[in-house]
Amino acid sequence: MHTFFREEQGGHPLTGVDARIKLLCAAAVLSMVLTCHGVLFPLLVALLGVVACASLRIPLKRVFVRFSEPAFIVIVLIGLKLFFSGTDVMGTWHVLGVGITAHRDGLMEGLFLGARIIGAVSVIAALGFATPFPEFLGALAWLRVPKAFTEISIFAYRYIFLLLDDATVIYCAQKNRLGYSSVRRGLSSFGVLAGALCLKAFENSSTCAAAMIQRGYDGSMPSMGHERLKGGHLALSAFFLFLMGVAWRM
């Protein structure tokens, strides 16, 4: 659980901003990223997101893990657009008797889409690192997000760490017994691990449901109380969105 859970960085200004304001600002910036007409604005947003993560003192390894999957998607997308889309030919190569043609306009389109992806991911990463998960769910409830979504998110957040601990125990036991000494044994051990986790998840869900029903759970959870939004935070967020809007229009 300590791999993913992080105590709030109380000394950073971002953590003191109301989660509702941060969520609304993130939604506004995301809409700007998805509707921009160039690559400069998404790259600016990505830079701001990385700077925010660095100022929050997030370990570089965690930032790399958070961006690794989107970066892989971006690389694949650029490759597909480069070789399978466009009309402006850059060059043609023959590999194993197969002609491969690169297109300049396909490359530019891939870079544009990749910049959007990285910009959007940086916004989500900065929001996630600067906002504790309970406050984030409280902000979603304040925005009238369906209760079923928030309740399922609460349970998933609670039990995903238990499943992670169980997976770590099973994996260490398998590794100590040379369960991953070869590819064949590794695949077999991974199958056993996945099956054990599925059974454990079903067992935890049944136990949790029975425990909550015995404690009077009727299908709805009490919502979190919210303080009034601070005028200073609203003014700063409005100024920030104004600056981002100016950059979006440029």
Structure notes:
The chain has about 250 residues and is mainly alpha-helical. It folds into two domains: about 1-130 and about 230-250, no CATH class; about 145-220. The protein is built from nine helices and two strands. It has helices at about 15, 20-35, 40-55, 60-85, 105-130, 135-140, 145-175, 185-215, 230-250; strands spanning about 90-95, 100-105. Strands 1-2 form a two-stranded antiparallel sheet. A hairpin with a 2-residue loop joins strand 1 and strand 2.
Quick recap:
The protein is mostly helical. It is built from nine helices and two strands; from the N terminus they run ααααββααααα.
Number of domains: 2
* Low-pLDDT regions: 1-8
Helicity level, as a percent range? over 70%
Number of strands: 2
Sheet of most strands:
2 strands, antiparallel
**Which structural class fits the helix and strand makeup?**
mainly alpha
What's the mean pLDDT score? 84
| Helix and strand sequence | HHHHEEHHHHH
Per DSSP, the total helix count is 9
**Terminal Cα span:** 44 Å
- Global Rg: 23 Å
Form type: flat
How much of the sequence is in beta strands?
A: 5-15%
Strand order of the largest sheet: 1-2
Overview features:
9 helices; mainly alpha; 250 residues; disordered N terminus
List the helices and strands and how they pair.
Blueprint (H helix, E strand, L loop, with lengths): L12 H4 L2 H17 L4 H16 L4 H25 L4 E7 L2 E6 H27 L2 H10 L4 H30 L6 H32 L16 H19 L1
Antiparallel strand pairs: 1-2
